[in-house]
Q: What sequence folds into this?
């Protein structure tokens, strides 16, 4: 259930914004509110928070957020095997239905240093559940 908040972005957006370094919050808020300014990857990340209840650290690394602001093609398609943080890659869609990464920004998680990869966190969770 999505509640609208005072700024009209919703409570998951507020949760995400609260974890973003103060110096970047205004820019992130602006692109979330106005798709013409970019921020496709940030909206995709927000959708993950809304639909999959992804883990969100209390404080996000600035360099992680800067990638989304810098690269309009960056999307949160990889995640950290250890903490589950979604990390951006520049996606290429040449290989059929599954996105492939043209550029991997964070081979190691900028939050905890864990290994990242496509669905790394969920793949491990699934393996653990199968044991
Ligand atoms: Zn991590």
A:
């Amino acid at each position: 259930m999505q509640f609208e908040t005072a700024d009209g972005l919703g409570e998951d957006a507020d949760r995400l914004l609260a974890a973003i370094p103060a110096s970047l919050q205004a820019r992130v808020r602006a692109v979330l509110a106005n798709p013409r300014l970019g921020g496709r990857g940030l909206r995709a990340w927000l959708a993950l928070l809304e639909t999959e209840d992804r883990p969100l650290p209390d404080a996000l690394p600035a360099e992680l957020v800067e990638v989304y602001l810098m690269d309009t093609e960056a999307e949160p398609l990889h995640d950290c095997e250890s903490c589950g943080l979604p990390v951006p890659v520049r996606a290429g869609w040449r290989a059929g239905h599954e996105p492939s990464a043209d550029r991997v920004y964070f081979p190691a998680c900028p939050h905890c240093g864990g290994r990242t990869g496509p669905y790394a966190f969920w793949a491990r969770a699934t393996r653990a559940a199968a044991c």
Summary: Residues 11-130 form one domain. DSSP finds five helices and four strands in the chain. Helices lie at 11-19, 22-33, 40-52, 62-70, 120-130. Residues 80, 82-83, 85, 109, 111-112, 114 surround zinc ion (CB under 6 Å).
